[in-house]
Amino acid sequence: MDPHDIDVLADRLLQVAYDAVEGDVSVELSLAAVAELADLDNGNAQAALEYLCSRNLTRLHEEPGIFILTEYGAAAVELQRKDPEVHRALNDLAVAVHACEAFDEQTRADLRGSIETLHCQLRNPEPDKELLQRVWESIERLAGPATDEIEAALRAIQTYGWFLR
Question: From its phi and psi, is residue 144 left (phi > 0), alpha (psi between -120 and 50) or beta?
């Protein structure tokens, strides 16, 4: 499955789960019910849930087919709704980094870690602007002018990234 596809499916599942619980992260959710609301088949819903669990946005319940939205997942939805352009640009950069053959595995891992750091800081009620700027400088230095897709994502983050001003 294309990495961008799993991001889209996971995002749809996360958004629907968030709407279903209205921000209460202690509610147990049925994967089948959320998948139906998100208009996802069982295979795609399961793949999206596993991806969300790997990113600590949801966690599995002891009962099969049940999951719980984490506080981190709720914060991710809030970020996306508050700053959708920044969130989308960071996701686009992550996909472009994954696909870029000019990077070795260490550079990809470093960039993924830096992108996740930006996501984490932006989920905080009071993000550390200095840390955001240092991480951004690291991303720019590592990513450089690798591909058109990376350049486009970097420009989008520069355009919408309030933390860079």
Answer: left
Are 67 and 142 contacting, i.e. CB atoms less than 8 angstroms apart?
A: no
Chain segment 39-65, per-residue pLDDT in tens: 999 889 999 999 888 888 899 999 889
Residue 10's beta-bridge partner residues?
Answer: none
Residue type at 119?
A: H
Each residue's pLDDT tens digit, 95-124? 888 888 888 889 889 998 999 888 888 877
Rounded to a whole number, what is the distance in angstroms from the first to the last CA of the chain?
37
Task: Evaluate whether 149 touches 96 at the Cβ level (below 8 Å).
Answer: yes
- 139 CA to centre of own chain: 17
Rg over CA atoms, the chain = 16
Q: What is the 3-state secondary structure (H, E, C) of the chain?
A: CCHHHHHHHHHHHHHHHHHHHCCCCCCEEEHHHHHHHCCCCHHHHHHHHHHHHHCCCEEECCCCCEEEECHHHHHHHHHHHHCHHHHHHHHHHHHHHHHCCCCCHHHHHHHHHHHHHHHHHHHCCCCCHHHHHHHHHHHHHHHCCCCHHHHHHHHHHHHHCHHHC
